[in-house]
């Protein structure tokens, strides 16, 4: 009978210790998140990503108020081009129809914009 009580007491102590440790982990995660990244990602945001293969993709990245078309692979990140101001304003202000707003359409409109400038 005495050994059952000591086992139960030890088990309860272990559970209490586990709860305290989990609570400390939770609190430290919250505190570290607050101090490590106090501003969040207000100035840098990936808006859309399209995989080209297992190891490469293209994406639209918002840096401040500008949009960039970026190429991303395992070994590098390359700026392909800065999106035109008119396309940037429409994308940021959500003036485009959201059902048509995808990476392929933006690349197409962007390339058409640059072709007009070269003609």
Q: Could you please describe the fold and organization of this structure?
A:
By secondary structure, the protein is an alpha+beta fold. It folds into 2 domains: 1-38; 44-118, no CATH class. Helix content is 50%, strand content 25%. The protein has 3 helices and 4 strands. The protein has helices spanning 2-36, 85-93, 103-118; strands spanning 44-51, 56-63, 66-73, 77-82. The protein has a 4-stranded antiparallel β-sheet with strand order 1-2-3-4, with helices on one face. The chain is elongated. The mean pLDDT is 76. The chain crosses the membrane at residues 6-27.
Task: Show the helix and strand layout.
Layout: H1 2-36, E1 44-51, E2 56-63, E3 66-73, E4 77-82, H2 85-93, H3 103-118
Question: What portion of residues belong to β-strands?
Answer: 25-35%
Mean pLDDT: 76
- Outline, from the CA principal axes? elongated
Count, helices = 3
Structural class: alpha+beta
Q: How many whole angstroms does the radius of gyration measure? A: 26 Å
SSE string, helix = H, strand = E? Answer: HEEEEHH
What is the number of domains? 2
Number of strands: 4
Major sheet characteristics: 4 strands, antiparallel
Spatial strand order of the main sheet? 1-2-3-4
Distance between the termini: 94 Å
Uncertain runs are none
Instruction: Give the helix proportion (percent range).
Output: 40-55%
Subcellular location: Cell membrane; Bacterial flagellum basal body
Family: Belongs to the FliO/MopB family.
Transmembrane segments: 6-27
Keywords: Bacterial flagellum, Cell membrane, Cell projection, Cilium, Flagellum, Membrane, Transmembrane, Transmembrane helix
């Amino acid at each position: 009978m005495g050994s059952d009580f000591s086992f139960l007491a030890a088990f309860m102590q272990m559970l209490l210790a586990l709860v305290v440790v989990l609570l400390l982990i939770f609190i430290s995660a919250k505190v570290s998140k607050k101090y490590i990244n106090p501003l969040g990602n207000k100035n840098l945001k990936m808006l859309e990503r399209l995989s080209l293969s297992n190891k490469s993709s293209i994406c639209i990245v918002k840096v401040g108020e500008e949009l960039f078309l970026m190429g991303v692979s395992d070994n590098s990140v390359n700026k392909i081009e800065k999106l035109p101001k008119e396309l940037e304003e429409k994308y940021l202000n959500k003036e485009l129809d959201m059902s048509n707003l995808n990476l392929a359409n933006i690349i197409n409109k962007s390339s058409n914009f640059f072709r007009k400038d070269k003609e």
